[in-house]
Amino acid sequence: xxxNSSKGGTGGSSGEILIEGEAVVTAIGGQYSGAGIGGxxxxxxxxxxxxxxxxxxxxDVITIRGMAVVKAVGGLEGGAGIGGxFGESGNGGDGGIIxxxxxxxVTAIGGxxxxxxxxTDGGAGIGGxGSNYIxxxxxxxxxxxxxxxxxxxxxxxxxxxxxxxxxxxAYRVNARFNQESVGMLNGQQATLKIYxxxxxxxxxxxxxxxxxxxYSCFAYTTGASDAYTYAxxxxxxxxxxxxxxxxxxxxxxxxxxxxxxxxxxxxxxEVDGIVEExxxxxxxxxxxxxxxxxxxxxxxxxxxxxxxxxGSIARxxxxxxxxxxxxxxxTPIYWMSFAFSAVTGDS
Length: 347
Prior knowledge:
Strand order of the largest sheet: 3-9-12-15-19-16-22-21-20-17-18
Shape: globular
Helix content: 10-25%
Largest sheet: 11 strands, mixed
Number of helices: 5
Strand content: 25-35%
Number of strands: 22
Low-confidence stretches: 3-8, 273-289, 291-347
Order of helices and strands: EEEEEEEEEEEEEEEEHEEEEEEHHHH
Radius of gyration: 24 Å
Structural class: alpha/beta
Oligomer: single chain
């Protein structure tokens, strides 16, 4: 939508942009990396052997509202999907003021500047423009809890690059894969399916996501809900990995309304944590207390080391009930269900 550029100067700013009603817009930044919607490219040039850096154009005020459906992709050299333009040897364009309201449906993909000559940043999905010098400033972002937003970015700028001044509106998971996980995707795009609970049944309304090849950051809104979400990564039709937190390998992805970025990674196989951690802690001690009675009426379970680890007992019962993941094939599911129900009141 904006491929204005200035050689040896500042790229064109966005001006005020309003997209509303039932508009359907696809906006792709030019090859030389203006934002999809926002500032233009600042292009390095030389005059009489004097090099002049190009600062990316700033985003001014961008509003998307009504029932508009928008897909915005930053130019190949690192413009934001929505926000600032790329700056070549200058500053990336700033993110400006971006408001997404009503029932707007927005997908924003930052450009993927990749030049091994420099330490570079691609553009944010929504926010600042990329640069091989200094990235653009974060945007003042407001997203209504009735809108649906997905965003992606290539490198260190987050998918939703917010200055944190509006800690309200829609909750969102704003995540970044570690480099090992990006390598596991082997240069291919991945589908991320997002679920509202650990049963991995129906997906949330704002799912699935399509993570572009080699991208590390993704974000999705969850409306007015800050309940945990759970993500699975697919290659084609095959589920390959769970998405878990880097800090503790747990799959609970907590939506927030501020600028927090959650470090995540890909984990193969079954993952721990079928219920929220606080709930698990609360039920684990009572479960340990009924363990002795349980052993007297059920068939022997063999060895299960629980010393000092009551949480393992909780997980044993819960996984048996919810996953059918019975490590002891002779253990009657009835008794596992009874033990869980006795503690939680769940039937």
